[in-house]
Design a protein that fits this description.
Elements lengths: L1 H16 L3 H18 L1 H15 L5 H25 L4 H4 L3 E4 L16 E5 L19 E6 L5 H11 L5 E4 L4 H7 L5 E6 L9 E5 L2 E5 L2 H8 L3 E11 L2 E6 L6 E2 L2 E2 L2 H18 L26
Parallel strand pairs: 1-9, 2-5, 2-8, 3-4, 3-5
Antiparallel strand pairs: 6-7, 8-9, 10-11
Helix pairs in contact: 1-6, 2-4, 3-4
């Protein structure tokens, strides 16, 4: 069965990668629209989340239209991600732009740029975050992941992500390697932090309701004395995206380290702004707000 899943997934991936990116994006939007109709469980989650956040601002019809567009975006992003992982930086360049890079690094880029930590989330085609290093000399992107099961799918995922030239560290088994990498110049560590973090997270508000949030960006930035930022991938057209760096998140106050909870709260504030800017661009199908007694879902923990 493991072999069959691998062959099926690999065939599907190769099929999408053989098509032009705009066509892949359209296929993804069609599949997303189909999923909105057929996937009642995730449709219910998305509608509940959107109603909780925007129920006092938008009508029921507007929320349903937003949820439908969100499913289309998710389909577009996932299918596009399969395609873009196989594209060279030159071929990807017409579809991707960057903004506010000066927040991260001064211009011109220093030859030995100090390490940075960036809190990122499931906005747009989030597989594009690691491609940053291919467009800016001297920058080495890095990230953590949780290995998939079965192992064949994990192997396939790593093969796809290899084109980004990003360093990938399995979060449960490669902590020592990540620690060693953070001592090198030019490291830009991106950490996905917008999903339920279970009992290991810190409880801070997100759209007015507390939820378990990963403290990893705050912990890593303080531990390795790195400056901390946010970044977001916005859809600016069919198969076109812009990655924007956010303002620096302060780590110290009057020379003293700020509390992890306060730093994480500031990250959530920036994420709220990004969601409000383009509500259909975020991952509403995830149960972000959960009671404290519920653990993080295993099927999403690797993302």
């Amino acid at each position: 069965m493991d072999w069959f899943i691998y062959i099926f997934a690999r065939t599907l991936i190769k099929g999408l990668q053989s098509l032009p990116l705009p066509l892949v994006a359209r296929i993804g939007r069609f599949l997303g629209a189909l999923a909105y109709v057929l996937d009642g469980r995730h449709r219910k989650v998305a509608l509940a989340n959107l109603t909780m956040v925007f129920g006092s601002e938008k009508s029921g019809q507007e929320i349903r239209e937003l949820a439908r567009e969100n499913f289309k975006r998710i389909g577009e992003n996932y299918c596009s991600a399969v395609k873009t992982t196989a594209m060279s930086a030159d071929k990807l360049k017409p579809h991707l732009e960057f903004a506010n890079v000066e927040h991260l690094y001064p211009e011109p880029f220093p030859k030995y740029a100090p390490p940075r930590v960036v809190a990122i989330g499931h906005f747009g085609n989030f597989e594009l975050y690691p491609r940053f290093g291919q467009f800016f000399q001297g920058i080495q992107c890095a990230s953590t992941y949780r290995a998939l099961r079965p192992p064949s799918l994990n192997k396939l995922l790593l093969q796809m992500r290899a084109s980004s030239d990003s360093l990938l560290f399995e979060r449960r088994t490669e902590a020592a390697a990540l620690k060693a990498a953070m001592s090198k110049p030019g490291i830009l560590l991106g950490l996905l932090v917008d999903q339920h973090a279970g009992s290991g997270g810190v409880w801070v508000p997100f759209f007015g309701r507390e939820c378990s949030t990963s403290s990893a960006p705050a912990v890593f930035a303080l531990r390795y004395n790195c400056r901390l930022f946010t970044a977001f991938c916005y859809r600016i057209g069919l198969a076109k995206w812009r990655i924007e760096a956010g303002p620096e998140i302060p780590l110290r106050d009057n020379g003293e380290a700020r509390a992890i909870k306060d730093i994480t709260r500031d990250i959530n504030i920036e994420f709220e702004k990004a969601v409000r800017r383009d509500p259909a661009n975020w991952f509403w199908v995830h149960k972000r707000w959960k009671p404290k007694h519920q653990p993080a879902p295993r099927e999403l923990a690797h993302v």
